[in-house]
Amino acid sequence: MADPTLLILPGDGIGPEVMAEVRRVIDWYGARRGLRFAVEEDLVGGCAYDAHGIPLTDATMARAQAADAVLLGAVGGPKYDALDFSLKPERGLLRLRKEMDLYANLRPAQCFDALADFSSLKREVVAGLDIVIVRELTSGIYFGEPRGIVTEGNERVGINTQRYTEGEIARVARVAFELARKRSNKVCSMEKANVMESGVLWRQVVTEVHAAEFPDVALSHMYADAGAMQLCRWPKQFDVIVTDNLFGDLLSDAAAMLTGSLGMLPSASLGAPMANGRPKALYEPVHGSAPDIAGEGKANPIACILSFAMALRYSFDAGEEAARLEASVERVLADGLRTADLLGPEGGKPVSTRAMGDAILAALDESL
Ligand code: NAD
Ligand code: IPM
Ligand code: MN
């Protein structure tokens, strides 16, 4: 059988730097575990704009649709801030998510023991933390119409619309319940049903799907603002959190700090199964292009490397190999290796992106 195709879109800023380490990990799996991929590379975001005048070409879009999985670094940067909205790097990523219909974004936040003292929260609050935020990714206020900036009278008005159909809510709720069954069997759904009709519908539909299909899973509901507070107060009360596109964006950045750094958080954006049974899938770190450190070899590659681990698990049925990679990351952290983002106020000597990659490859070798 032909090797599965993996389309790599390094993107902008630190994207190419962290992706270079992932490529070495991919090569390691080919050489040492016989897990081979037909790797292709293409442009998305600002670099695509520089080359083609748009952040994602139709040709790249078609390649993403045809790939067995897509791995993305990050997009964006100050250089592109003044561009028309339709040409911004972020539009390239949003087009990929929308056209591939990647409605379920899994954002795990796991606190590795070696980093428990480094979180901005106390050790006892975060040690052993292992939660997943399931963020709806293809609807809500990110895509609702009407939108735009219009002139009314003599002033400008900015408009975005929060819109959810019950089908959109039900399908992401199912992903959360299914995932919970493989974990601690607990889902907390977050919205603002106290002020938003879309939140009222969200709560109703999640409750209906639960009663009809997942009565064995414990379900609770929380207003998203209170949920943000609870995530900081006692995050270990959660197992799976399911929420909408915008709340999920905010809550997952907050959850990142429970693990020590935004440079640690991977994600999987999943859609419906393809003809070959694999889900449509794009894997990407939660962080952005980090323009403040781009080009300096300082970026933490772990979020991107752990995103590849998620690809092994969710797209390529290689859960044991994913666990091997995760354990290798944990091992390197336990040995005390830290990129700059993982050093606390007391300082220490940071390692480079490349040195972190080297250490993870060495730990992979040792795992054999
Ligand atoms: P960011 O995530 O790029 O950076 C926030 C902070 O975290 C910065 O101080 C950065 O140095 C640090 N950081 C992030 N990732 C890191 C890593 N791997 N290692 C070490 N430090 C890391 O968010 P931002 O500054 O708000 O956004 C910058 C650009 O990235 C914007 O154009 C934004 O739209 C874009 N963005 C893209 C994605 C994506 O491609 N998925 C996600 C978020 C933001
Ligand atoms: C993320 C990012 C994106 C989002 C941007 C870059 C479009 O912040 O993946 O979390 O807002 O979804
Ligand atoms: Mn975000």
List keywords for this structure.
368 residues; Isopropylmalate Dehydrogenase; 2 domains; alpha/beta; 20% strand; binds manganese (II) ion; binds 3-isopropylmalic acid; 10-stranded mixed β-sheet
In short:
With 368 residues, the protein is an alpha/beta fold. 41% of the residues lie in helices and 20% in strands. It is built from twelve helices and twelve strands.
Give an overview in words.
The protein has helices spanning 15-33, 46-52, 58-66, 89-99, 123-126, 166-181, 197-213, 224-233, 245-258, 302-314, 319-334, 353-366; strands at residues 5-11, 38-41, 69-74, 104-110, 130-136, 144-152, 155-161, 186-191, 218-223, 240-243, 268-273, 279-283. With 368 residues, the protein is of the alpha/beta class. It folds into two domains: 1-103 and 267-368, 3-Layer(aba) Sandwich (Isopropylmalate Dehydrogenase); 130-258, Isopropylmalate Dehydrogenase, CATH 3.40.718.10. A ten-stranded mixed β-sheet has the order 2-1-3-12-11-4-5-10-8-9, sandwiched between helices. The chain has a two-stranded antiparallel ribbon with strand order 6-7. Strand 11 (268-273) and strand 12 form a beta hairpin. The longest helix is centred in the N-terminal third of the chain and has 19 residues, at 15-33. The radius of gyration is 20 Å and the shape is globular. The mean pLDDT is 96. Bound molecules: nicotinamide-adenine-dinucleotide (NAD), 3-isopropylmalic acid and manganese (II) ion (MN). Manganese (II) ion is lined by residues 249, 253.
